[in-house]
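debug: dumping io for the single-chain case to check the tokenizer round-trip. Nothing else runs in this session.
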Amino acid sequence: MSMPSLFFRTAILLAIAGILLGIFMGINQDFRLAHMHAHLNLLGWVSFFIFGGYYALAPQAGVGVLPKVQYGLCLAGLLVFMTGLTGIGLTGDQALAPVAAIGSLLILTGFLTFALIVFRTQIAPRTA
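debug: decoded output
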């Protein structure tokens, strides 16, 4: 599967998860997971869609192992981060903060990997 397709498909699934979480919170009038909801939509739906858009714009950037590493780091980081935020939101137990912190660091590493990919890729100007 191409990198744009992988990121776009993942973005759609994360958006659906974020929407369902928002609906669940609204129905139950329980907004303890509002932070998770916001981060899931921003880091999941928005970021993954932007990553896919970049790889569609610059297909040469999606070649090799580095884009796959970036995808893995961002997705694993998001899942670990969401696990920590969910636990903290539902229980109030700050002992889960290190889980969220580890997820944050994985996400940061994924974004730094993406920055490396962007800065090493030359995009030719479009001609009319």
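debug: round-trip ok. The radius of gyration is 16 Å.
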